[in-house]
Design goal:
With 331 residues, the chain is α+β, with helices and mostly antiparallel strands. The chain has one domain (8-301). The protein contains six helices and 14 strands. It has helices at residues 150-154, 216-219, 224-231, 242-253, 257-267, 293-301, and strands spanning 21-29, 32-42, 46-48, 51-53, 63-70, 79-85, 94-101, 113-120, 129-132, 135-143, 169-178, 187-196, 204-210, 272-274. The strands form three sheets. Strands 5, 6, 7, 8, 12, 13 and 14 form a seven-stranded antiparallel sheet that branches. Strands 1-2-11-10-9 form a five-stranded antiparallel sheet, with no helix packed on it. Strand 9 and strand 10 form a beta hairpin. Helix 4 crosses helix 5 (257-267). The chain is globular, with a radius of gyration of 19 Å.
């Protein structure tokens, strides 16, 4: 979800910016129809509660960063890419990427086949890229590609075209994968973060999950217990939230109860569908770094009353892997 803050009072999940999901992207590799680019962005560089810059350490070593893939449209993961990071030591951190397929992909754990081991995390302007067979991997600080007039959104959707995110950064995990590894037909994608909790069953607790941009406007309207249940839940169970989403849509967009329920069902389960054989375009298939996904969501949220925030894509995107621009702040 493109919210950058999902915890109570615009904070971070479990109070940790490193666990916070921002955006998910999926698109065919430019110039190579046999591969796809999957991007998982986390850890915004600036927080609201508390306000100000977040910590320089990109990723939490006690966390698991996971990309789930559903290959048969049952809202249950059949493939999972899992990334673990070492402790941040003298400004350095490394990553291990694993892939697991089958029934275990739907569970919690850091097992799986090692695809990349000991990849250096990027802290500066130059992207540290690791190649392993048909895969390429990047992890580290990057310019946030998300564009939106956030202050206008908080001011009763009175947009002025001021891009709050123009000078912000995120921590990115970028995968270049062969389509043969994820399926050659339409798949469903979502991302999640897990945190190691020693007294939890299996040792892991889900901190957050998401796929679509801007569901913040609906999720933060839920009661605390229901919001937590949503963020720690799984897409396969999302039908239980249709009523709450519909109620939020009635309030925000003036929908009739019947129409609000219909629209809520199009948003749930929260999965991004992506067909690697088609050009990516949100919300039909995947999401590119220049898709104006927020305009699409604003039209849904307001029942067509507001259709744009007057903000466009960023100009610092790269034409090649990892596609995201260098970070703004010096680390």
């Amino acid at each position: 979800m493109s919210h950058h803050y999902s915890g109570p009072d615009w904070g971070f999940p479990r109070g940790d910016a490193r666990l916070d999901l921002t955006d998910l992207y999926a698109f065919p590799k430019p110039g190579d129809a046999g591969k796809s680019i999957l991007i998982m962005n986390v850890h915004p560089s600036v927080g609201e509660t508390p306000p100000g810059p977040t910590i320089a350490e990109p990723f939490a070593p006690e966390a698991l960063y996971e990309l789930k893939i559903d290959t048969d449209r049952d809202a249950v993961a059949d493939i999972a890419f899992r990334v673990r990071f070492t402790s941040f030591n003298n400004g350095t951190q490394t990553a291990t990427l694993r892939c697991i397929k089958g029934a275990q992909a739907a569970g919690m754990g850091d097992d799986g086949e090692v695809i990349v081991n000991g990849a250096l995390v990027s802290m500066g302007q130059e992207a540290q890229i690791t190649e392993a067979g048909d895969y390429r991997f990047f992890a580290g600080w990057r310019s946030d590609p998300f564009f939106f007039d956030r202050r206008g959104a908080l001011n009763n959707l009175q947009f002025t075209g001021a891009d709050f995110f123009a000078d912000k950064d995120v921590c990115s995990i970028v995968l270049e994968v062969p389509n043969s590894a994820i399926g050659s037909k339409e798949i469903g994608l979502w991302q999640r973060t897990l945190i190691r909790v020693h007294d939890a069953p299996g040792g892991w607790v889900q901190a957050e999950r998401g796929a679509h941009p801007a569901l913040l406007f609906l999720i933060l309207g839920l009661a605390d217990a229901e919001r937590d249940a949503y963020l720690t839940g799984n897409p396969v169970d999302d039908q239980r939230f249709v009523g709450s989403f519909a109620h939020a849509l009635e309030h925000a967009g003036g929908y009739t109860p019947q129409e609000a329920t219909r629209v809520a069902k199009t948003l749930l389960p929260e999965i991004m569908y992506y067909d690697p054989t088609r050009a990516a375009s949100f919300p039909d298939s995947g999401r590119t770094l220049t898709d104006d996904a927020l305009d699409t969501f604003l039209a849904i949220l307001t029942n067509g009353k507001v259709t744009e925030d007057k903000v466009g894509p960023h100009s610092d995107l790269l034409a090649e892997f990892p596609y995201l621009g260098p970070p703004h702040r010096k680390l």
